[in-house]
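Need a sequence for this fold. Nothing fancy.
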C-alpha cells in the first residue's frame, strides 16, 4: 500500500505560547543578516488560502500527490481541469503589505535572502530579488519526458482553446492553485501534451510525496549557514522541507523567530513565536524600524 505524505501535525508536547510582543523580532531585524523562510500564511491576505490555519483547505481538500499524478490520465485530467480554473485566481492575486514589507527589509540591507514554500511568486511580484522557490512555481510548466520548461500562461492559452466553454463554478481555491470541482465538472476536460515531444506536462512545483531537488536543498542549507538568524513567516512547518532549516539554524546556535498565528512544529526551536496576522506584524515592524513600505501602486 502506498503511503500518503504527512499533511497534518498535532503537538505531542507543551509548546511555548505565542506572544504579541514584536520587540525581539525588531531587534533581530535591526542587526541585519536575517534569512526569511515564508509559508502560505503570508499570502492569505492576497486571497490565497493556506492549508492548515483557521478554515485551511486541508479540512476539505487533499492535495494531488506526485504518485497519483503520474499514475494515470484520469488523475491528470482532474488536476489540470481544476488547476486551469484555479490559475485564473492566482493570476489575479497581488502582493499584500506583508510581501511588500519583506521587500522593504531586503532593500534596506537587513535580509540575506528569502526562502519561500509558496508557489505563487508574490514575493517577486512585490519586488524581492533573492528568492528561492523551495517548492517551485505555478508560473512554469515542465515536461516529464524531455525536461523542457515553458510559461504557464502559454499552456493556459492552449487549454482555453482546447476546452472552449469550460466555465464551472468552483467551491473554493486552494494554496496549490487547485480549484474544488466535482468529478462530473471535470469530465471531458482535454489534457494537452508537450509541444516538443508529446510527453506529460506537470506544473513546475514539488507535489506532496515528491522530493525537493537536492541542489535546491543544499543551496538553502548554505543560506542558513551564512545567515545570522532565521525569521519564519506564516508557516506551520508541518512538512520537513521547511522544518529542516529551522532545525539546522537552531543546532548552529542561530536565533529562530517565528511569526505565525497558530503553533508550529518548529516552536520548540524558536526564541519566540509572535501570534499576529502577517500583514499587521510586518508593517508594524517596518514602522518601528523607520523603513517605508511601498504601497501597492509603486510596488
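Here you go.
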Amino acid at each position: 500500500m502506498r503511503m500518503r505524505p504527512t499533511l497534518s501535525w498535532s503537538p505531542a508536547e507543551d509548546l511555548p505560547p505565542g506572544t504579541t510582543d514584536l520587540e525581539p523580532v525588531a531587534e533581530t531585524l535591526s542587526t541585519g543578516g536575517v534569512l526569511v523562510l515564508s509559508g502560505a500564511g503570508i499570502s492569505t491576505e492576497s486571497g490565497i488560502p493556506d492549508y492548515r490555519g483557521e478554515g485551511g483547505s486541508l479540512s476539505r481538500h487533499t492535495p494531488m500527490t506526485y504518485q497519483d499524478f503520474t499514475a494515470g490520465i484520469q488523475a491528470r485530467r482532474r488536476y489540470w481541469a481544476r488547476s486551469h480554473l484555479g490559475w485564473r485566481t492566482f493570476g489575479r492575486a497581488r502582493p499584500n503589505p506583508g510581501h511588500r514589507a519583506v521587500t522593504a527589509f531586503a532593500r534596506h540591507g537587513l535580509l540575506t535572502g528569502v526562502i519561500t514554500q509558496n508557489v505563487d511568486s508574490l514575493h517577486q511580484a512585490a519586488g524581492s530579488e533573492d528568492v528561492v522557490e523551495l517548492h517551485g512555481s505555478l508560473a512554469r510548466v515542465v515536461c516529464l519526458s524531455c525536461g523542457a520548461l515553458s510559461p504557464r500562461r502559454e499552456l493556459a492559452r492552449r487549454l482555453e482553446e482546447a476546452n472552449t466553454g469550460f466555465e464551472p463554478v468552483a467551491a473554493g481555491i486552494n494554496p496549490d492553485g487547485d480549484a474544488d470541482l466535482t468529478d462530473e465538472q471535470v469530465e471531458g476536460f482535454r489534457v494537452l501534451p508537450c509541444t516538443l515531444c508529446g510527453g506529460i506536462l506537470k506544473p513546475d512545483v514539488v507535489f506532496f510525496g515528491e522530493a525537493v531537488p537536492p541542489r535546491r536543498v543544499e543551496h538553502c542549507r548554505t543560506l542558513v549557514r551564512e545567515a545570522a538568524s532565521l525569521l519564519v513567516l506564516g508557516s506551520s512547518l508541518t512538512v520537513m522541507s521547511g522544518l529542516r532549516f529551522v532545525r539546522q539554524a537552531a543546532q548552529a546556535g542561530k536565533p529562530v523567530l517565528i511569526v505565525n498565528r497558530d503553533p508550529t512544529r518548529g516552536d520548540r526551536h524558536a526564541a519566540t513565536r509572535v501570534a499576529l496576522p502577517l500583514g499587521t506584524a510586518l508593517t508594524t515592524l517596518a514602522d518601528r524600524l523607520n523603513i517605508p513600505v511601498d504601497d501597492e501602486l509603486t510596488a
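For context: The first helix runs from residue 23 to 31.
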